[in-house]
Design goal:
Blueprint lengths: L6 H4 L2 E7 L3 E6 L4 E5 L15 H4 L3 E2 L5 E2 L5 E2 L1 H9 L3 H4 L10
Antiparallel strand pairs: 1-2, 2-3, 4-5, 5-6
């Protein structure tokens, strides 16, 4: 059996690009890829900057694996991974599971 993969390697985003209607295409190091709909955030609070679609198109991967547009707007890549894959935090981070052996 091979060496276990580090969870930080697994969920590292490798590609992100803007799509129409406040969606992003994102690909992760483990091969998970697809579109994530962010339209529920558009126009709310700091996300009103997305009203300028040229700004929305500036999405990129930050130095700490975050998906960002500028220093004020960034999203956690872990949460986007969960949204994309449909996994729960407990699936991704087994230590979060409650012990039912009590």
């Amino acid at each position: 059996m091979g060496k276990p993969l580090d969870i930080m390697t697994l969920i590292r985003p490798t590609t992100v690009r803007a799509l129409p209607n406040y969606r992003v295409y994102i690909k992760f190091a483990d091969g998970a890829k697809g579109e994530v709909d962010l339209s529920d955030l558009a126009g709310k609070g700091v996300f009103d900057r997305w009203n300028d679609y040229n700004f929305f198109e500036q999405v990129h991967i930050g130095a700490h694996r975050e998906i960002k547009w500028n220093d004020d707007i960034e999203l956690c890549s872990d949460s986007l991974y969960l949204k994309l894959t449909g996994m729960s935090p407990e699936n991704l981070f087994p230590r979060l599971r409650k012990n039912t052996d009590t």
